[in-house]
Amino acid sequence: MKKVLGAIATFSAVLLLAACGSSAPSSKDNQALVQNTVAAAQGSGAFGATLATTDGASFTLSTPSSFTPGHFASGQIPGQLFVSFSISVTPKVALNLSAMTVTATTPSGACADILDGDNAIQGAPQAALPAGAASTFKWALSCPGKSGDALTVLLSNNNVSLVQALGKLV
């Protein structure tokens, strides 16, 4: 009898837990997953140009160059082109660079970030950048496509689109 009651209690608990959160997502939830909600960049231009945001920060993304990732690099995808560039930023108000994201695309698809200590490509600085201070750091991407294809790089911080640089893959 104890075994039967134990089995019934276990079965009931499983059914109860399975019912938790089982409501189907609404069509509104599904639509939010596929809609592009990224706002237009505050500044846009070519690689190498100084791009400004509405709060007066300036960003310069150097012209991308081809590079060979080091032995212990991560993020490179075989068969893709590997490009690196530097990002220079001078904010008018303090800016938390650790919250910055880099989104890059080509006509063939999205690029992946490469981290490579051998080439001093370690992502954005983790400390906040004080107003008026300047910082320059290297960034690298693994991009689908071929040399000469369009390359678009968008810098965002805390879900705010800051600047967009336009150029070509090398």
Could you walk me through the main structural features you see in this protein, from its secondary elements to its overall organization?
With 170 residues, this protein is of the alpha+beta class. It has one domain (39-168): Immunoglobulin-like. 15% of the residues lie in helices and 38% in strands. The chain is built from two helices and 13 strands; from the N terminus they run ααβββββββββββββ. It has helices spanning 2-19, 27-34; strands spanning 43-46, 50-52, 58-61, 65-66, 81-90, 95-96, 100-106, 109-110, 112-113, 128-129, 135-143, 150-157, 160-168. The strands form three sheets. Strands 2, 3, 4, 5, 9 and 11 form a six-stranded antiparallel sheet that branches. Strands 1-13-12-7-8 form a five-stranded mixed sheet, with no helix packed on it. A hairpin with a 5-residue loop joins strand 2 and strand 3 (58-61). The protein is globular and about 40 Å long. The mean pLDDT is 86.
Q: What is the element string, with H for helices and E for strands?
A: HHEEEEEEEEEEEEE
Q: How much of the sequence is in beta strands?
A: 35-45%
Q: Enter the CATH topology name.
A: Immunoglobulin-like
Number of helical elements: 2
CATH architecture: Sandwich
* Helix share bin: 10-25%
Structurally, the number of domains stands at 1
- Termini separation comes to 75 Å
Large-scale geometry: globular
Number of strands: 13
Mean pLDDT over the full residue set: 86
Low-confidence stretches: none
* Main beta-sheet strand count, sense and barrel state: 6 strands, antiparallel
Q: What is the CATH level 1 assignment?
A: Mainly Beta
Rg, Å, rounded: 23 Å
